[in-house]
Amino acid sequence: MAAPLSVPKPQPFDPPLWLRPGIVQTALASQSFRKRGPNPMLDAAEDRIIACEDGVRLKGSFSPHPENKALIVFLHGWEGSQDSTYVVSCGRYMFERGASVFRLNYRDHGDSHDLNEGLFFSTRFNEVFDAVRQAARLNSTGTGEGAPVYIVGFSLGGNFALRIARSLRDLMIPKLRRIFAISPVVDPWGAAPLVDANPLYRRYFLKKWSDSLRKKQALFPELYDFGDLLRSRRVLGITERILPLHSRYPRMEDYFNAYRVDPDDLSRVPVPVDIVTARDDGMIPERDVRRLKLAPGSRMIVHDHGGHNGFFQSLSGPTWYDEHIGDLVFRGS
Questions:
Q1: Secondary structure (3-state) at 90
Q2: Could you tell me the CA-to-CA distances from 57 to 112, 122, 151, 175, 254 in Å, in that order?
Q3: Quick one: pLDDT at residue 251?
Q4: Are 332 and 69 in contact (CB under 8 A)?
Q5: What is the mean pLDDT of residues 220-244?
Q6: Which helix (H) or strand (E) element contains residue 166?
């Protein structure tokens, strides 16, 4: 299951001056213009509902490629979806090179609020792991031989990806070759206040989360009434009020600690992990990532620029991480 330790050295990331500011890189990551034009991955997409443990159902989209050189499972960020720009753009890049693609939604993300009564919390790891493991079984070729599997997670999806890596000390995902975590949340307690501190981030996530909760309330009015809760003008304000009402975590500190990745968690994982982050990421402190101790074959790549989920080299070409992931996937590393 382990990948070879000899892998190509990462290419440098040196965007032009006008593309270097972290806020520019971050803003571009979700811009819809990146999804324009023909997309054979979307043309091949098949909706899937995955039945997970405890009766949970998660929605995803599977795009099988005739060549099936690899299967890449994508995990989006908080309040994103399988259709987030960074997922669709990177997925298209991989599909056009011969990889099959599975894009997963967490519960209450994308068009999936009706599938489960319970609310999404970042601590709902087991169902995500179960869904990823089931998605990995879609990698068989016509001869019955499985293609290598890769996981690519962004932001909160990067956090899920790192927790999946940690869990592989006891569990297994067949044919899993490597895990990529782009701008991953490592310590939520350090990252969450930064969202509220920046007016642009705060407004973006408040709107996304508020819309999601209103949709959930409309579908299950007998279970939820978020009227008072949604009057909060801070993400942490909603978090603090919703946890004791609808989760088993009475305090934010307990909740954030429950999905934190600790420094030693990745030191003995059996599958290599590539962590890609930027010093100018306004949501993920570099110090949190630097604390992680990685196993042989894993790499921590910290660029000066890139923002959050950005890493744009130009407006028209692939991102740095598109090419980095592609180099490893299609060279078999």
A1: helix
A2: 9, 16, 20, 24, 26
A3: 94
A4: no
A5: 95
A6: helix 156-167
Residue whose pair of structure tokens reads 């620029």 in the numeric block: 305
3-class secondary-structure state, position 59: strand
Contact 29, 86 (CB under 8 A): yes
DSSP one-letter code for 176: E
| Residue whose pair of structure tokens reads 């705060």 in the numeric block | 202
pTM higher than 0.90: yes
Which CA distances in Å does 276 have to 91, 130, 158, 253?
A: 17, 25, 10, 26
CATH topology for 17-187+260-330? Rossmann fold (3.40.50)
- Give residue 101's pLDDT: 98
In sequence order, the 6+-apart residues with CB closer than 8 A to the CB of 214 are: 226, 230
Is 26 in a helix, a strand, or coil? helix
Residues 6+ positions from 290 with CB-CB distance below 8 Å: 300, 302
Cα gap 86→306, rounded to integer Å? 13
How far is it, in rounded angstroms, from Cα 205 to Cα 196? 9
For 246-276, the pLDDT digits (tens) are 999 999 999 999 999 999 999 999 999 999 9
* Residue 321: both structure tokens together: 């991480």
Given this model, what pLDDT does residue 139 score?
79
State the DSSP code for 19. Answer: G
Give 318's pLDDT tier (boundaries 50, 70, 90).
very high
CA 240 – CA 243 distance, rounded (Å): 6
SS3 267: coil
**pLDDT at 301 exceeding the cut of 70:** yes
In 3D space, the residue among 275, 314, 306, 270 whose CA is nearest the CA of residue 291 turns out to be: 275
Which secondary-structure segment (H or E) carries 118?
A: none
pLDDT of residue 10: 86
226 touches 119 (CB < 8 A): no
CA nearest to 2, candidates 278, 215, 272, 296: 272
> Where do the domains of the chain lie?
17-187+260-330, 191-259
